[in-house]
Amino acid sequence: MTDAPDDDLAWETTASEIAYTCPGFDIVRDDVVLPDGTETDYDYLDDDPAVVVLPFTPDGDVVVIEEWRQAVKRVNRGLPAGSVEPDDADLTAAARRELEEETGYVADSLRSLTTLEPANGITNAVHHVFVAEGCTPTGERDLDFNESIRVEETPHEALRDAVREGDCRDGRTALALLYHDAFRPESEGDHA
Amino acid sequence: MTDAPDDDLAWETTASEIAYTCPGFDIVRDDVVLPDGTETDYDYLDDDPAVVVLPFTPDGDVVVIEEWRQAVKRVNRGLPAGSVEPDDADLTAAARRELEEETGYVADSLRSLTTLEPANGITNAVHHVFVAEGCTPTGERDLDFNESIRVEETPHEALRDAVREGDCRDGRTALALLYHDAFRPESEGDHA
């Protein structure tokens, strides 16, 4: 888990440029020197840090969304998520905002679960995962122009079964749920 | 979980082109029509399907690797993984090959755990996750020119603790371990 710059696995970055840009992300190309001295380059997708929210209703159901995912050409069932924005006071505020904007639900409380890199071989994307408790549909949705989102409440166990059976292929949803279930405090009981 | 093409969330793809290419991946730009009729475009990273292997030794330790991850500029501790190649007879063969190439370990047996999309908002990447049992360092490593990899055995519980504490930020490693631990058959006992 070392990140010491003198780790003998480390690459040296000698230059960096934005090689491609689009509304969703940039592609960065770094000139690098490998540990054996080889000079080459390496491209990766530069993405904004994001929040992922696992929202529970007071009854312990999970608020899930369905939305089109163009990269995989299908409707994805999963958790609300989105990029952290400059106006967000902190990550918790970003999670609260994304939850309300995408689902219309407002949380009693949010807490950080963990922070993960979903695919650090190709992108610097970081997912800050939160659990939101006591969520009720009392807020105002505010979708981006290209977002069409269906919202529903699903039993916790049904979502877990979908992950188990491979019916929920969305990695961030599987990770948030499995992390939550594996490490939840004993005192919380079964529902959340 | 529907993927019916007439789902009212579906986007229509009217054209598609490779907008950028590099040795690791392509960027695809699709022209799309949103459900409300808006015409726009959407870029995503086109990645090869990959296998991720959770390898256990006969003693129940996990074979982990450390390698440099240029996208996040640090050494990553995680599981062997790599793209499926044309010569792989099937996904299990790909998992067996990647395990041996990256770690030098050979598995007694492999079985599929699940298939997940790590970040389907930005990429069509798919991770086919396998568990490998009875792994011993009896094979031949064969690294790509830009791979420098340290291999070590770590106690299962230590890796789980690293995931819990956020010391293992590698999403595919966290997912494979948490999925395995959550849904392993009762008969397997604690070690694997």
Coarse structural class of chain A: alpha+beta
Q: Into how many domains do the coordinates of chain A divide?
A: 2
Please give the CATH architecture of the largest domain in chain A: Alpha-Beta Complex
* Helix content, binned percent of chain A: 10-25%
Largest interface: A-B, 78 and 78 residues
CATH superfamily of the largest domain in chain A: Nucleoside Triphosphate Pyrophosphohydrolase
Task: Note the overall shape of chain A.
Answer: elongated
Please report the first level of CATH classification, the CATH class of the largest domain in chain A.
Alpha Beta
Strand content of chain A: 35-45%
Helix segment count of chain A?
3
What do the pLDDT scores of chain A average to? 93
Number of strands of chain A: 10
Major sheet of chain A, described briefly? Answer: 4 strands, mixed
Radius of gyration of chain A: 19 Å
| Main sheet strand line-up of chain A | 7-4-9-8
**CATH fold category name of the largest domain in chain A:** Nucleoside Triphosphate Pyrophosphohydrolase
Q: What pattern of helices and strands is seen along the backbone of chain A?
A: EEEEEEEHEEEHH
Keywords (chains A, B): Hydrolase
Protein name (chains A, B): NUDIX hydrolase
GO molecular function, one term (chains A, B): hydrolase activity
Domain Nudix hydrolase (chains A, B): 46-181
